[in-house]
Amino acid sequence: MQLHLMSWPEVANYLSQRQDILIPIGSTEQHGPMGLIGTDAICPEAIANAAAAELGCIVGPTINVGMAQHHLAFPGTIALRPSTLIAYLQDYVNSLALAGFTHFYFFNGHGGNIPSVEAAFSEIYAERSYQRQGPSGQVRCKLGNWFRLPEVAALASQLYGDKEGNHATPSEIALTQFVYPHAIKQAELAPIHATARYATDSRDFRALFPDGRMGADSALASPQAGEQFLRLGVQGLIREYNAFVHHP
Amino acid sequence: MQLHLMSWPEVANYLSQRQDILIPIGSTEQHGPMGLIGTDAICPEAIANAAAAELGCIVGPTINVGMAQHHLAFPGTIALRPSTLIAYLQDYVNSLALAGFTHFYFFNGHGGNIPSVEAAFSEIYAERSYQRQGPSGQVRCKLGNWFRLPEVAALASQLYGDKEGNHATPSEIALTQFVYPHAIKQAELAPIHATARYATDSRDFRALFPDGRMGADSALASPQAGEQFLRLGVQGLIREYNAFVHHP
Amino acid sequence: MQLHLMSWPEVANYLSQRQDILIPIGSTEQHGPMGLIGTDAICPEAIANAAAAELGCIVGPTINVGMAQHHLAFPGTIALRPSTLIAYLQDYVNSLALAGFTHFYFFNGHGGNIPSVEAAFSEIYAERSYQRQGPSGQVRCKLGNWFRLPEVAALASQLYGDKEGNHATPSEIALTQFVYPHAIKQAELAPIHATARYATDSRDFRALFPDGRMGADSALASPQAGEQFLRLGVQGLIREYNAFVHHP
Amino acid sequence: MQLHLMSWPEVANYLSQRQDILIPIGSTEQHGPMGLIGTDAICPEAIANAAAAELGCIVGPTINVGMAQHHLAFPGTIALRPSTLIAYLQDYVNSLALAGFTHFYFFNGHGGNIPSVEAAFSEIYAERSYQRQGPSGQVRCKLGNWFRLPEVAALASQLYGDKEGNHATPSEIALTQFVYPHAIKQAELAPIHATARYATDSRDFRALFPDGRMGADSALASPQAGEQFLRLGVQGLIREYNAFVHHP
Amino acid sequence: MQLHLMSWPEVANYLSQRQDILIPIGSTEQHGPMGLIGTDAICPEAIANAAAAELGCIVGPTINVGMAQHHLAFPGTIALRPSTLIAYLQDYVNSLALAGFTHFYFFNGHGGNIPSVEAAFSEIYAERSYQRQGPSGQVRCKLGNWFRLPEVAALASQLYGDKEGNHATPSEIALTQFVYPHAIKQAELAPIHATARYATDSRDFRALFPDGRMGADSALASPQAGEQFLRLGVQGLIREYNAFVHHP
Amino acid sequence: MQLHLMSWPEVANYLSQRQDILIPIGSTEQHGPMGLIGTDAICPEAIANAAAAELGCIVGPTINVGMAQHHLAFPGTIALRPSTLIAYLQDYVNSLALAGFTHFYFFNGHGGNIPSVEAAFSEIYAERSYQRQGPSGQVRCKLGNWFRLPEVAALASQLYGDKEGNHATPSEIALTQFVYPHAIKQAELAPIHATARYATDSRDFRALFPDGRMGADSALASPQAGEQFLRLGVQGLIREYNAFVHHP
């Protein structure tokens, strides 16, 4: 049940019974020569929408731009500063909290979002801790990452081993291939570029990872594997989401 | 051509030929008892994607949350403060400008966004006027509103006259009905509520407009009319976009 | 009755009877070779002070610097970023709202202010919509533009036709000539420079409009016409202000 | 020479010869039962305009709202947060610095502005120290206070002794009486309220100083004394301004 | 070599040979009935100062207040909002980067700091990615946590097993006992309070963890164990720091 | 009694009896060829800790980085922008005020902090004046400067006359020599550099004061004098602190 496809009386009715919401969050950033720029939004959105059918929960509008400053040297990347993303998430959560939502599960497709999103949660809680807004303990936020769900990670490891890498991974590309079969790209890929160092700013990143991939053999991706990742992602999300919402 | 479905080398290739981008911008807000909460994002997104096929341009990720503070008293609404939206648009535009994009056409579905988006343009230009970033005159932003395209407004007027109203209008609802036929809502609608006064904050809005509609007879909407609105919207957008991009 | 010339007990007495205030807002920016840099502040201030005599309302201190980033390539211009102007207006309105003022009519002399001022209104309302401050619906802000009052626009059209232009217009210069006859400037004016494109940042503006005028034949201005504009401006402002304040 | 009454070519001509500017800064705040709310802006503005005739310098638009949070419990007060005033002054100075102004003399009428204005200077310099903007050492800001000019303070001491007090002082009220003779107020004044403690927030201030005066016998003011204060203020400002501008 | 005990020529000399700096970062927050409020600053500071003797590196001033909003319901806690901590770290790093420092190793004592510090790194890099400041790739920041050093965690596990808990742990208290033997506290401790849920705001935290400890049996701490933790912390920090600084 | 060496129940117990706190605030900045970079933090911290023994008050964690932008051209300096320092102090004070602290005495070692700290106080009060947080008049902040205590200034004048200067003064260096005898530096000092002009940004400062001292003959410092300064500082602080806390 996408929030965008509901009317407000339907939301009011939902809130009279439950107060949780599932929010896909991704990024708009390069994913190597054959990965889609929207990969990190497409993956959690697809899984969330499929899982919501069973969960019966509302899915909020996908946060499709995230913290991607390190990818800015590749065209097509859009990056929010952490401070912007924090302000954005504050408004997003505070708006829904006003209406009575209490449990916010952000389902994430981009590792680079994690610190900023967690910092945003603290900023949101801090407002309440300083007693500036609302009653205590009623807003609970959680971040889950689809690619770290145990069943997902296990399949990635089984299929790709250490060729999974860290960015433009075959697992995420496979999932997008299944969701958007007409957007599958072909590209000559250079041998996997190994580096022991993390990157800092965007030009540093590009110098370290010239085609944008971080140790990932994107070419191993297939739509068939993507379907498996979707199924396992749904399974994992349902379990994690229920654990979050039904926890005392 | 959605940016999210492209790879970065495809974007690089595009930029070697042209530097424009089309960006749908909407809102997540109540649209009366039978309008979809995502109406303002759905409409410009649908038109933009259809027009892009002919325009050959890239469509950026839809900005699906906007400045909707006045709707916050209805559940389901998510509102960015103007200051947040300005920061968000700065990062969105500056990211793409780094890569070489120069012409940013924002295609809008929500009247409430207009001042904040225009203010954001000025904030973006001001950075450059203060010489803090980049060369001069190379970033050009424009805001167009689908519901103010002459052909769209003419059809709305012809079909609905003054029952079109200002929010949860039959024209916008019609368009969403065509795009999402399975999400058509039924609702008992109170007689149109007339008011001469504009609203201020969200509780003031709800007191003035108890079911969320502003003088609009949403029930007049039909998917058939929606198809017409889509076709006219595409026609109008193509003309306006070309005028913007090809202007000397 | 200028707020600056009152004592606080006089304000307290006023507030026991009415809660409205009239606030001139302008800009400090180039107005072509013969226009005054303070034109956009001088015009609404002069009209507001004259109208207030009849309206019996308080006139707040003129906001004499506005959003003028596009004029920064001409010396003498002072520009607030939109974000700064928004913060400024928040504090201005919140201060007076604390004391009991409820109706804020901003009377504007500069088109470039409009989006930022409207965005500021939303930022002010949003504070209340998020329930962070004060009761609902008690702060009402409105922006009126002296140059768009029907009687003013009609006279400008009658006197100058399309030589009125959009910046450094003969109508605004005429009004300043009437108010400050000793500051009337003489200058050789180049032929009117026509352009179909809007400007972006300040260097782009100057490239498009080398002497600062936008299609305006400033030389047509006269103090006699200025007196007429003042009279019509007062007439229009009184009508608009009363409509705002006395609206249910 | 008020900036508002100049054209941009006149400013350009001035800048080809000198790069200094005099900027009155005041406040909009209660000044006791018989003081004007605009006192702190009126005083430095009147002195600055008179001095400028001899100095030949440009006078920028008066900053008529300042940091007055402690007066907010009295109606008519408008207060900028320090952070807002800092942002405002950044934009004010950066705008003029772009055009070539280098020496900014702020002539102040309100003690409460001092820390925020000095902090703003540091914020402006810090931008340059971090190398984010412009060449080094070219922007020089100075704050002078009219009421601390030695000749002004001496006259206040001679005329009023310790009845001068600290707010709504007879000296500042005298000056406004001379400038605005038609706005002279009469009021019954309670005996001077002595307090050894400084105030914190606005309600604390009002509890300590119930009618808004801080140890000042405002009733001693006279327009005649105001004329003397104006003359001495002009004399002192000219000396201080020249020392600032002509210093190596 | 503490930065605070050096002169600037000594720093200049150091920078001519190496460009790294070690920065302890902690928090000021409750640590249960017998833990010190400064625990999270004391631990990394003590280890850093001891390690620096061997590393030969400069130790920057300890960041002794951090992101601790969840502890605000206990007296003595001081918490920075994430946005404040981010701004603070930006200025800290940018200042030293101006002078030529390139490698910033933050040695952390508080888990709650991690997201905000990592977000701050991205904010710092983003400035450079947007090309707003300085050359690329020259500023490298890394966060290490003393309590996650393998040798430290191993000892904690060996000594305390699952009584180590997550806050006010015996290991951190032991270290402070060794460093400040005169500040060892005695307190009656309630049985360890188990909870499966994470906390949100400060009142929620206190409801979940009434005496401030999170599953930790603080009473197991001893100064003798503290000495071991210090020794192992130094050993681990030296290894990690060298790996960071000497990495290609 | 350092806050960092207390447990939260000890703080709770303290608050049941008194609500004041003493907070050393300094800077991290060059102090000439033989002064310590931490001088401005070391001095107030040492005096505060010694005075607290007699005062029985809590000493908060030292704020060891301040507003030092003008020193940024010398390596080792760390500077917060005024806006950052204001946000930092807001959080610092608001955190402790939540717990019940009411009297905040900041004991300062750096003249450059004064405007920003005073502005921060106003920002903190303004929050309350706008009624956004907490009851009125309960938070009282005061800034005292150790180097302006009458007995301290008298000794400096007696020992050093006009060779005391304004930065890297023999008095402050003497105090650090007494506190850190092993960190006493030797350096060839150029003759005292006299300048009548104040500095603006950091490069301007270095051009005016090439070795970082401002008219100070640092070489006159001795640990023996430092001991005297410490004793007099403690004496002065006790008097001033008591006057602040016990004032009605």
UniProtKB/TrEMBL annotation, chains A, B, C, D, E, F:
Pfam families membership: Creatininase (PF02633)
Protein's UniProt keywords contain Transmembrane: no
Keywords per UniProt: Hydrolase, Metal-binding, Zinc
Cofactor: Zn(2+)
Similarity remark: Belongs to the creatininase superfamily.
Stored PANTHER family: 2-AMINO-5-FORMYLAMINO-6-RIBOSYLAMINOPYRIMIDIN-4(3H)-ONE 5'-MONOPHOSPHATE DEFORMYLASE, 3-DEHYDRO-SCYLLO-INOSOSE HYDROLASE
Protein name: Creatininase family protein
Organism: Balneatrix alpica
